[in-house]
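User: hey, got a sec? need Flavin reductase folded
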Amino acid sequence: MFYRPEDGHGLPHNPFNAIVAPRPIGWISSRGADGSDNLAPYSFFNAVAYVPPQVMFASTSAKPDRDGTKDTVANIRDTGVFCVNIVERAAAAAMNRTSGPWPRDTDEFTDAAIARAECATIACARVADAPAALECRLIQIVELRGAHNFLVLGEVTGVHMRDDCVVDGRFDVTRFHPLARLGYKDYTAVSEVFSLERPGE
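Assistant: Yep! Here you go:
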């Protein structure tokens, strides 16, 4: 099968995000200029550089009360900071709860009964029990083609790792099974790890 996106795929559901999968989930916490906390998952998320460490996520929809975007991007525009919380398999239900189209004054930490802690390098909350959390300062928000599509780039200024996930000096994902997004309504969790050496190593 071949299709041009501009012509449509002719399938019952869009296959694009099933093809580009699995995708790590950035559970993004942000704080509004009024001090209110927000927490929402984004599956267009990844690390993009080592030195300095940088990450990105993209927001692709909008809420009527947020001027063409969503709470997360609006908050980051106002404050210039955010935190990426890594989602473990055990937190799937809580993460999913925070994905709802709640009013801007909803505190997802409270709504989903998620423990929060203050970040160390930025004025923002983080998921207290997350396997890892990356505190970030905004580098740039890029407006992408299409309605409501924004790419957010941040520099990591602080890294939290849960003690039980550090084994023999390595961050061990098998201790918590990172949750990842597939297509449609599907998810997966990392349960198997193998190593390869690059040629010449």
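Quick note: The chain has a mean pLDDT of 96. Let me know if you need anything else on Flavin reductase.
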